[in-house]
């Protein structure tokens, strides 16, 4: 009997027992193995079109696009997942890969969106173009919920359709002339958007792109770069709690980072999309650090707090105090980008965001976050008990598992082949991720439990 | 008694009589002069911050941003409108400026969005990240509704949060190395995004930006450029029915355009956001022209069809047949941009889009469009009867009024000052718009009638 068959036949059996009686994870009633509604298959356009045509325009392909390696990481994983499902049509694949939320959005939030939707059919409730920067009430609520007493005001907040889109808009703002640093490993959108904008050189295997300063984040340095070895760049992308390593920088470390940026005259783009997942008492915003407003932009999102990955809502904070070298306020240029290249987030999503920040909404979000944090504990415990060195998890919904000396893609492939569980290969996040695999805690409880059961089977 | 007072005091009187008894425009029951819910005030960040700080980063401001003139057009108009409202706090300002939809979205569409919202609270109805390219059903519906028998397939369609965002993503795709042509006048996002990407030279008053090929569209050439005088460029932005002139290119003209692009090896970016407003039997898509798929991208939107300006939903078609000079498919690079710089349109908005394309939705959209077309007729009749040369209107919701020898901004200012009606100065759309004012037909019927009454008062 093959591994595949063994796994398939055991699916209906309860798999929560393995944690022992002393652990009581809340289990929501839910179906296991719901068929994916939106398989994220990046339908790459055929390079050999069915209709043969000799005609080509005389427009040169953007050389920066040609520098990009393969597809964007997550569509690439979706592609491999889809190929796997073709190979094993009966396998019950569990995705702990993409970091995609799975739990329903609390009703207090969806009711507000439904109400706004219905309202759009009435004279009183209809609204057309909103401010590109977002609705005033939402900007104010974001400022007071996340940045109270940090010197951030409503008009420093730019509401968006998500942090990923804002990262690209920030790159367009900076232009092709800047240099940039990233944590290595890091969320691939920082590097890829930098390549697209022409800020980098060519890609070199095992080294990454030329002109990018990769700040190594390893178990040895506690996943915080040794800044004394980092060269000056114009822009520093910094994500904490970190995707993919799951580690969160301490107040002391962030103070070092702000100091480093100030000495070098750099701008930090601080991604705090997982801030509410922290268990430790680390800063939730870069603006908690004195001087932060003079050196940093912060981007964040409702995606992982309220399950808004499909609804699309985020924000970026550009403080008035942040200036280019000629004294021109960065916020003024970002405002121009937002007005020219964007037309505001969906008004319905914005109503949802406002509901998220009501007292009931905040409580409901905390419950969703708490649920995923319990998933994280299950995954951490599983890999730890199997003897792996496991990082992250405590302050972020990602578990960073070490497979020393092995290729990430090979480990990814083996896990997928033998357990039908999709993870993310660490090297997809940069050269520094080689030898690691990221396991996401976003999943239905029963699926997380089942995946962990399969991990135990594979690595026992 | 000042003009201002005269207008204010007469507001409650019926103003529909002036059209005479032989015209029967449908008048929807509605309140006049609803207070604007989202005054589009572009809160420009103060250049003199209250908190004095000497610190500046060492990051150079993107030189392309510095090339941009003033603010993006529409926020600039919103700013002037706000200033006017401060000056005349009791004036009842009517906006026929921005082109912002005012009529409620048909219930068949909002119900679908409300249902999707509620569904997100359930295990069965929840969905996280969708495909960056859009939901399969919606892509298929767009392909079959707008491109049946034109050789465009579901996977050629990229669903987005609106045409404006897609225009910027297309510019990022092309990069800084391309040259571009635009109709002059044209929707400002084409030129501004080109400037931001570094495709242009500096701005020269009365001439526009260096390196941009301005294709003059005037009453003399029927608002279709004389292509024999147009220099070759890599990219040609072409909007038909046109914003702002309201004219639509004929089949013969579009055939010339495709031929021109083919001879030059250019890529046409065809903006068809107003296609359903056409009364004449012109092509509604560039792909109706033989060879179009080898030379053109098309972008469009639900904004003006279904009142989705605030909901945010559009799409871009990149045919497989379109290739860069090295044979690489443009769609493949656009797919990479969409996957890296965007995370898909809001799932709720996409449910709305799908409802728009149901038989009931299509009928409801036609009714909304019909309503605005009646507004257009009222405006055209008003200016025509006042002796102005009036263009557009028949095939688009914009009326292009000629004020020969006058400055557009001055005419705009005079109309605002004396009638409290916001229009759009033609020169805001490029040097070729000087001497014109664009009057938008998007407005509540009573407001359009009242605005026209005031125009008659001013120009009698």
In short:
With 460 residues, chain A is an alpha/beta fold. Chain A has helices at residues 3-9, 63-67, 73-87, 107-119, 136-146, 163-174, 188-196, 251-264, 292-295, 303-306, 330-341, 347-356, 359-385, 408-419, 445-459; strands spanning 94-95, 157-160, 180-184, 203-204, 208-209, 212-216, 235-239, 267-271, 296-301, 314-317, 390-392, 398-402, 421-422, 424-425, 436-440.
The oligomeric state is homodimer
Strand order, largest beta sheet of chain A: 2-10-9-8-7-3-6
Number of helical regions of chain A: 15
Between the first and last Cα atoms of chain A, what is the distance in angstroms? 18 Å
Q: How would you sum up the global shape of chain A?
A: globular
| Mean pLDDT over the residues of chain A | 90
Write the CATH homologous superfamily of the domain at 3-104 and 362-459 in chain A: Aspartate Aminotransferase, domain 1
Q: What value does the Rg of chain A take, in angstroms?
A: 22 Å
Percentage of residues assigned to helices of chain A: 25-40%
Greatest interface: A-B, 132 and 131 residues
Question: Spans of chain A with pLDDT under 50 lasting ≥5 residues?
Answer: 1-51
Q: Tell me what portion of residues of chain A adopts beta-strand conformation.
A: 5-15%
Largest sheet of chain A: 7 strands, mixed
β-strand number of chain A: 15
CATH topology of the domain at 3-104 and 362-459 in chain A: Aspartate Aminotransferase, domain 1
Structural class call of chain A reads alpha/beta
Supply the CATH class of the domain at 3-104 and 362-459 in chain A. Answer: Alpha Beta
CATH architectural name of the domain at 3-104 and 362-459 in chain A:
Alpha-Beta Complex
Order of helices and strands of chain A: HHHEHHEHEHEEEEHEHEHEHHHEEHEEEH
């Amino acid at each position: 009997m093959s591994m595949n068959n063994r796994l398939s036949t055991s699916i209906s059996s309860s798999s929560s027992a393995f944690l022992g009686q002393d652990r009581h994870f809340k289990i929501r009633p839910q179906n296991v193995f719901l068929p994916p509604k939106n398989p994220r298959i990046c339908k790459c356009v055929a390079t050999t079109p069915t209709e043969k045509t000799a005609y080509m325009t005389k427009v040169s392909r953007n050389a920066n696009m040609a520098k990009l390696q393969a597809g964007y990481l997550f569509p690439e994983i979706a592609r491999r997942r889809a190929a796997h499902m073709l190979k094993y049509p009966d396998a019950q694949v569990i995705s702990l890969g993409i970091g995609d939320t799975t739990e329903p959005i609390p009703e207090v939030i969806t009711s507000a969106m439904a109400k706004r939707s219905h309202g759009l059919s009435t004279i009183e409730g209809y609204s057309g173009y909103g401010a590109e920067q977002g609705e005033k009430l939402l900007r104010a609520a974001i400022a007071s919920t996340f940045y109270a007493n940090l010197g951030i005001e409503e008009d420093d907040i730019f509401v968006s359709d998500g942090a990923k889109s804002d990262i690209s808009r920030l790159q367009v703002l900076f232009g092709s002339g800047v240099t940039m640093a990233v944590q290595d490993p890091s969320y691939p959108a920082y590097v890829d958007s930098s390549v697209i904008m022409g800020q980098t050189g060519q890609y070199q295997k095992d080294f990454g792109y030329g002109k990018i300063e990769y700040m190594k984040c390893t178990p040895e340095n506690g996943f915080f770069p040794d800044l004394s070895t980092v060269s000056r760049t114009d822009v520093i992308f910094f994500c904490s709690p970190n995707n993919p390593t799951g580690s969160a920088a301490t107040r002391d470390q962030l103070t070092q980072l702000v100091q480093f940026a100030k000495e070098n005259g750099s701008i930090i783009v601080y991604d705090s999309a997982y801030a509410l997942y922290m268990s430790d008492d680390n800063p939730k915003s870069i603006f908690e650090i004195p001087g932060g407003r003079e050196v940093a932009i912060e981007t964040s999102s409702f995606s992982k707090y309220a399950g808004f990955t499909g609804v699309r809502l985020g924000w970026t904070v550009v403080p008035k105090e942040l200036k280019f070298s000629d004294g021109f306020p960065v916020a003024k240029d970002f405002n121009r980008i937002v007005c020219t290249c964007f037309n505001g987030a969906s008004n319905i999503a914005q109503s949802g965001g406002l509901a998220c920040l009501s007292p009931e909404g905040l409580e409901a979000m905390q419950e969703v976050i708490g649920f995923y944090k319990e998933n994280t504990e299950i995954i951490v415990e599983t890999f730890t008990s199997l003897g792996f060195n496991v990082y992250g998890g405590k302050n972020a919904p990602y578990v960073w598992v070490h497979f020393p000396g092995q290729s990430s893609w090979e480990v990814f492939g083996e896990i997928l082949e033998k357990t039908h569980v999709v993870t993310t290969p660490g090297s997809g996040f940069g050269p520094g991720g080689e030898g690691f695999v990221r396991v996401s805690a976003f999943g239905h409880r029963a699926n997380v439990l089942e995946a962990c059961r399969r991990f135990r089977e594979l690595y026992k």
